[in-house]
Amino acid sequence: MAERVQGDSPGSGRLIRAAAVLAGLLLVAGGEDSLGKPPPRPAAPSAVTACLERSGELVADVNDDGHPDRVTDPSRRGARLSIVFGAGSAHETKVPVWGLADRTARRQEYVRAAVADFDRDGWSDLVVVAGEEQAGDDPVPPRVAELRLGPFSDTGRARRIVQLDLEATKDIAVADYNHDRYPDLAAYTYTGDGTYVTQARLGDPRTGLASDTGTYTTDAAGTGYDPPADLSPSGLAPFYPGCGTHRTPG
Ligand SMILES: [Ca+2]
Ligand SMILES: [Ca+2]
User: Fold this and answer.
1) Ligand 2 centre from 128 Cα, in Å?
2) CA of 51 relative to ligand 1 center, distance in Å
3) Tens digit of each residue's pLDDT, the chain (250 residues)
């Protein structure tokens, strides 16, 4: 935080501290521009019970407008995630993964996203990883590696954003590593010199996704970018009940 040097007036120290606090608040709020505001803080629990279709599609009100939204990712590694906002309503809108990357999407060479309620507060959250492709021996870290705590808007805006300590990650998927009912994240990550690993970030009630412990890291076979066909066999199934059934998750 701001330190006051000798001879500086007490007032300027306070001003610097106030400015620093304000800058922090603006970062937390995610700002506002042509992409609109994040949804307001929820006043009540979601009226839509989140559930999983047999097809693997997640149904949840991710933007808290009272209409169910539908989340799919046929790629199963974040590349082709899309969300149909207001599915079945007059305002139905399909947003592809690029549209959720936020203000920087046009400058990204790749965008990946995953949706689950990582902190289990009842609102599905959005992870976005985006940046430059790997282009040499040294890992290129992503420009964007964020957990946007739900509800989030149809442009990927959220009131609370957690910066993730992901390394040179490209592909991501919701996973179940430690079977504690908090969704986890699998991250296919470049470690340099042509080698990749799959790392884990564990769902967490306080931080959303906790730091890597190294415990679940697995080396990828061979060298070069060759993500597993199924980055996370468990997917969302352990964490959401089936739609139209009384099946409990797991
Ligand atoms: Ca909605
Ligand atoms: Ca949440």
Assistant:
1) 14
2) 14
3) 333 434 344 445 555 555 544 444 444 444 446 788 999 999 999 999 999 999 999 999 999 999 999 999 999 999 999 999 999 999 999 999 999 997 667 789 999 999 999 999 999 999 999 999 999 999 999 999 999 999 999 999 999 999 999 999 999 999 999 999 999 999 999 999 999 999 999 999 999 999 988 999 999 988 999 999 889 888 999 999 999 875 555 5
Going from the Cα of 85 to the center of ligand 1, the distance in angstroms, rounded, reads 5
Ligand nearest to the CA of 158: 2
CB atoms within 10 A of CB 122: 14
Tell me the ligand closest to 124's alpha carbon: 2
3-class DSSP state of 189: strand
Ligand 1 centroid from CA 48, angstroms: 9
Ligand nearest to the Cα of 123, by number: 2
Q: CB 176: neighbour CB atoms within 10 A?
A: 22
Question: What would the two tokens of residue 9 be?
Answer: 């007036």
Cβ neighbours for 245, distance < 8 A, ≥ 6 positions apart: none
Rounded to whole angstroms, the Cα distance separating 66 from 238 reads: 25
Q: What is the pTM of this model?
A: 0.84
